[in-house]
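Input chain follows. Return structure tokens only.
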Amino acid sequence: MAPDNRRLQGPESTFSYTLYIPNNRTDHNVVEQISSDERRKDGRKLNEQRRIYVKTGVVSQAKGSAYIEQSNTKVVCSVFDPREIPRKSGYSVNGELYCEFKFAPFSCIQWRSHQPDAFEKECSLILRRSLEPAVCRHEFPNFQVDVYALVLENDGSALAAAITCAALALADASVPMYDLVVAATLGVHGDKKFMDPTVEEESLCNILPPDGRSRNHGIITAAFSPAHQQMSEFAQSGAMDIDCATSSIQLLREACESIYLLSQQCLLKGVTKMLKKKQKEIKLDLSSDRIAC
């Protein structure tokens, strides 16, 4: 009897067993998130980012792809060849980007459905608005480039990681671009600002601070094109005053500049590897021709 290879739909209301472990239970208390020496639970300072690992060319079926890892946040992006814009009657001078942001069902503590929810649709729009200013859309009129971002594991700042990863995937697919796009996330809770927050810190920042302190709280995700010194997208949740938002933008800009250098090094490494592969193929062809003669 042949084995059953059908995909089984998991229950939609399951929770990770880690929620029931007392030491891992989320406690929305800023005192427990920050130690006396201004260190977070993972040992980082408030303005310190997690270590980032990026790589291009990870999906063989796609025209271009990239993978990014920020501690326990892991995202993979795929870009496919341009195709005609579906259900488009008129002629479009500029091409379009179709972006889809999706959490894998197993990526979060709570099981995610295969169907995109409202939050994922909103993130897809933010992803498209972040990438559009950097893409030379006039180079492929009446065509559409598909960009898919899949979060394999979510430990906070997944949207910012997806924006950076998607820009690298577009560059890996040789899509004409003005500049790379990089993004960063900042969490605000009272007078504390968490750069590159984890899931636990994001949950804390979405809660109103107690009375007697600053009432600023929320999450800010900003996308930048450092070469042009332009901000392509600014997404903010929660409530903040003007001074808090202004100072947060400066912190995000500095964080994006460091990520930008890492993205450039990743692309340079990918191009160098491809050129070496091409040179080796040319040498093999020349040697085979000599043997044939």
